[in-house]
Amino acid sequence: MKTAVYQMTVIPGQPRENLKKVADWLNRLPEDTDVAVLPEMWNTSYTLQQLADLIDDEGSLEISALQNIARLRRLNIVAGSIAVKHGDKFRNRAVVIDRHGHIIYHYDKVHLVPLLNEPEFLEAGDEFSTFKLDDQKMGLIICYDLRFPEITRKLALDGAEVIYVVAEWPLERITHFTALLKARAIENQCYIVACNASGECEDTVFGGQSMVVSPSGAVIVAADIDEATITADIDIEQSEAIRQAIPILKSRRTDLY
Ligand SMILES: NC(=O)CCC(=O)C(=O)O
Fold this sequence. Notes:
Residues 1-236 form the CN hydrolase domain. By secondary structure, the chain is of the alpha/beta class.
């Protein structure tokens, strides 16, 4: 699966401008790209106090624009996450669109990050699952979720061999991000495809370092700190092979823990 990751400099509080950037990027991808991946909160960044003025529905403008591109370009889009209205609250929602333009999965971030004031402004989701893209089982988590090994482990136990991590992870703690991405890949023997943002929002600088990590923990490709595109060709069989060679998931002592 030829995968392209957009380490995007999100323009804070400018959903229309960001949609234009994303559409231009998607339309420039090589025709043989199978999956395009976007970062967390790519429509607004962390302008949480302004969401009521910026967001008036469930992200229909952004999502329908991406559905059209997916259909026209026959491209799967792991559409990062966007701030959406949910009742009278807001959620941090990831959406996955297949090559036919169908929304096949959405996920509302379940672990809200106190360091960026999410609990004050957002409502947490309360469910997650695996999904299938091109017949392969995949999982997706959002940024702070990476610190909770249980969620990635559950996705791996449910059969995910590729897990996408969409993020706006600050530079200040970027060493945690890179270490945890490798740990999650090694302990679950799956590909980790991580898409972080670059640039800044208010006082927060985002740290980039988007990467694709193999099921044995090798960094196949990584970005630096600035806006960039990274690409990798993902061979799902590698995950199956390493799970057979070192049967971590089977060796677990579920009678003890
Ligand atoms: N956007 C996020 O969830 C940031 C997470 C973070 O800053 C951290 O875990 O540290």
